[in-house]
Amino acid sequence: MKPVSVQAPRGVVMIRPHHFSPNADTAADNAFQSDDRTRTAKTIAAAAHAEVSRTAAALEAAGVTVHLFEDETDTSPDSVFPNNWFSTHAGGHVAIYPMFAPSRRAERRTDVIEMLKQRYRVQDVIDYSGLEQDGVYLEGTGAMVLDHLERVAYAARSKRCNDVALERFCTHFNFEPVVFDATDAAGRAIYHTNVLMCIGSDISLIGLATIENAARRAEIRDRLEAGGRAIIDLSHRQVGAFAGNAMELQGRGGPLLALSARALRALDDRQRQLLERSVEILPLDVPTIELAGGSVRCMLAGVHLSPRRSDRAA
């Protein structure tokens, strides 16, 4: 078995929504969102609830610790994506983030943070959410894709990723910011970095064609390869199918890559074979969740914290 990598957490936090729906407040800058006019709102909500339940069960069966919280409210349509409002970091650090859409700010939950304090060794919690009052936003590990091994924070410019907030985070958490412009095939700015790239321990899936500046594109590729990673270059079509919205986790049998079934279907045989050299692929069927413009990576807030002794023994 490969040694455990700091890039691949053993645990995740997930939120199971009871009233899921694509968020009208975020549709303007999230071109990955879509509508389903063939089902009622009640049917869509029930399907999303079931998809989260199956995803959590599949991760637990693979040996990943899942902390599953319920959202029974009808005021947070995007609550299924907790990685946008908090992140955790080795050494016992937690960050809480400022959210662009007012309707998303209610997703922040004290019970999640308290659970982390009780189950894991948390030294401090840095809360950036007050920056919302100044119109400054940084939507967590949606806005940033973090290379925990090389200490680099990759970030595509958008309304949801402010340079000031990014610099502040990188200073506090010891990351180097690498900022770039990224657009989809229609020339629209991509709203979150984690839909175009995923960084694992030995591999990186990245839509290089989305990075507008050729020199910056080459620099980012070089940075990723310098860390010893194999690059899986995604086309615009594959990015649109959420092939970049994946996450490496530590399972019972070693590293695994959680991604959606749609994303896996979008990859070609060569790309899948390259992935399988480094990770076990765990496809998860979440078509209803993907209506909201995010996929499996967005559903998982990684726990990069050390468990307290009682939980380690358990």
UniProtKB/TrEMBL annotation:
Protein name: Amidinotransferase
GO MF, one example: transferase activity
Keywords recorded for this protein, A-Z: Transferase
Coiled-coil parts of chain: none
Presence of keyword Transferase: yes
SUPFAM superfamilies from the UniProt entry: Pentein
InterPro entries: Amdntrnsf_FN0238 (IPR014541)
Keyword Transcription recorded: no
Cross-referenced NCBIfam families: citrull_CtlX (NF046062)
Extent of the signal sequence: none
Pfam family, one: DDAH_eukar
Top-level taxon: Bacteria
